[in-house]
Amino acid sequence: MARIEVNHIRHSYLSNPQKDSDFALKEVHHTFEDGGAYALLGPSGCGKTTLLNIISGLLHPSHGKLLFNGRDVTRLSTQERNIAQVFQFPVIYDTMTVYDNLAFPLRNRRVPEADVDRKVRETLDMIDLASMANRKARRLTADQKQKISLGRGLVRSDVNAILFDEPLTVIDPHMKWVLRSQLKQLHRRFGYTMVYVTHDQTEALTFADRVVVMYDGEIVQIGTPAELFERPRHTFVGYFIGSPGMNVLPVALEGSTARLGAQRIELPGVPKAEAGAVELGIRPEYVRLGREGMAVQVSKVEDVGRHKVVRANLEGKEIAAVIGEDDEVPAEPKVRFDPAGINIYADSWRVEMGA
Amino acid sequence: MDKTWNNKAWFLVLPVLVLVAFSAVIPLMTVVNYSVQDTFGNNVFFWAGTEWFEELLHSDRFWEAMVRNLIFSFIILAIEVPLGIFIALNMPKKGWGVPVCLVLMALPLLVPWNVVGTIWQVFGRNDIGLLGYYVNALGIDYNYVQDPIDAWVTVIIMDVWHWTSLVVLLCYAGLVSIPDAFYQAAKIDGASRWAVFRYIQLPKMQRVLLIAVLLRFMDSFMIYTEPFVVTGGGPGNSTTFLSIDLVKTALGQFDLGPAAAMSLVYFLIILLLSWVFYTVMTNYDAER
């Protein structure tokens, strides 16, 4: 297992990048701690797979360095880095049995056959496929195939990290949950360094201890699921995480109050905002719908099962609020913002609030 | 019985039946008719029974042509399949090279068979042929008109030139269908170049290769035009394959009875082989 340092890495797919926009990865500087479970979360095309492929060595970065436990591996090939990667579509060797699939990486490295057998049997137990060892791999279901892909990484005891590139895309929903919890278990038992790329926030938040949110080739926030939820550093994180995403409303600041049209909203502190477009962000979970506060016009109520999402219009802006499954929308609905859930953004980046 | 019989439907099938009858069934039946009779011209026929078949199966000439044909098929398969795989593996997967290679590969396939024969017939001549002249100038005694070995070499090289492209194109189609992730995973698993070929590329090509082998075997087993144009089956009978022998018997000697018997045996062999390949392929599919 290894600590992975991504040292000021930039990458462009063009041969001669000039502008910032030529870079698929603008500048990433971050350390993945040994034994951590990380998720790289972001929309398609934000550079998360590029970053993953740079870590695995399938791509070499245009600028910057990559270190495993302090050792520079930037120019090393994939084999020399000793990492494991699970891809979006299950990669299995069709003609081989499950057993031979797992033995393949070891046999390629000329491991003695007795050790191969021991390691493969251990791994088969870990991924719950011991009973299928002698089956042809191509007859298995998609989730079993994906476990084989994972197993081919786990079988090498000395892997530095296990990388996942949207591994659950082709898996049936009910199996996704099972596989995810098995992954989590493996991580707890064996302490692998895991980096998991996904555009699905549920996957990222349930899998990872720390989530790295990427947007347009940059890391916008790194934090625990709770931090991402409570204190999104960038309005993008607010939109992207949560269902529905954060309400972001343009406001004008006056000391510790924010003005939204004719309404005045008390803030928990004085934002240290300099000039720039100021916005107030509040998650629908912190919007209280009741008989007091600012008047809104309700446009739609969506019942999503365990709660209801109310879409309403506040001073000409669309906002969403979450209310309980049994709560009713009052005849003259009004909203209040819970101060604990208010964040202030200047030019899309979060600003601290002083007392 | 409430069942309505509507015989009008037969009229819809009739055109196909007539077409098949005239194009296949009736010609085949005339061949059957010839194969059991003898004629001395003037449309006078005598019943011969199984005489022609017995004669054929005891004829050295027939078996020699058959053995020659099998050896020929075996040699060209042994060359074209590995060579085709090799070329397909080395063709570019993307960029401007792809259309260039594909067009170059398709060219020999577009040349009519008798033109291919004529090209090589002239190409190999040692007085005016580019190949024949220079090979002789290098001190190698090469003359496909007189030397049986040279004739074989010429016919085989010609077939390889003409048909390897087919194997290449089929294999290439199989190769480009392999997603990049397979190669990336193989890298991560530390697989050698050979292991990548053996466990990723070959399994993906298996199906198209089977089709390639089938097509090339059938074609080479029925080969006629090209060797006929180049060597005319000679020198002696050294490049007389089954179909050439058949045409010689039927049209050269005008022995309609023996030629008809030979056609039927030939037909049965092809039918049998088609069935074998068909069974192998469907079993292979069922196993997937």
Q: What does this protein structure show overall?
A:
The complex is a heterodimer of chains A (about 350) and B (about 290). Chain A is of the alpha+beta class and about 350 residues long. In chain A, about 25% of the residues lie in helices and about 35% in strands. In chain A, strands 6-7-8-3-9-10 form a six-stranded mixed β-sheet, sandwiched between helices. In chain A, strands 2-1-4-5 form a four-stranded antiparallel β-sheet, covered by helices on one side. In chain A, helix 3 packs across helix 4. Chain A starts with a strand and ends with a strand. In chain B, a hairpin with a 5-residue loop joins strand 1 and strand 2. Chain B is globular and about 75 Å long.
Strands, helices and their partners?
The complex is a heterodimer of chains A (355) and B (288).
Chain A: E1 4-11, E2 25-32, E3 37-41, H1 48-56, E4 63-68, E5 71-72, H2 78-81, E6 84-86, H3 98-108, H4 113-126, H5 142-154, E7 162-165, H6 173-190, E8 194-198, H7 201-207, E9 210-215, E10 218-223, H8 225-230, H9 235-240, E11 247-250, E12 252-254, E13 257-260, E14 263-266, E15 270-271, E16 278-282, E17 287-290, E18 294-295, E19 297-303, E20 307-314, E21 317-324, E22 334-337, E23 342-346, E24 349-351, E25 353-354
Chain B: H1 9-35, E1 37-39, E2 45-47, H2 51-57, H3 60-90, H4 97-110, H5 113-123, H6 130-137, H7 148-176, H8 180-188, H9 193-221, H10 225-230, H11 242-252, H12 256-287
Antiparallel strand pairs in B: 1-2
Helix pairs in contact in B: 1-12, 2-12, 3-7, 3-9, 4-7, 7-9, 9-12, 11-12
In short:
The complex is a heterodimer of chains A (355) and B (288). Chain A has 355 residues and is of the alpha+beta class.
Largest interface, counted by CB within 8 Å of the partner chain's CB? A-B, 24 and 17 residues
Number of helices of chain A: 9
**Class derived from helix and strand content of chain A:** alpha+beta
N-end to C-end Cα span of chain A: 44 Å
Strand order of the largest sheet of chain A: 6-7-8-3-9-10
| DSSP strand content of chain A | 25-35%
Q: H/E order of the elements of chain B? A: HEEHHHHHHHHHHH
- Unreliably modeled segments of chain B: none
Number of domains of chain B: 1
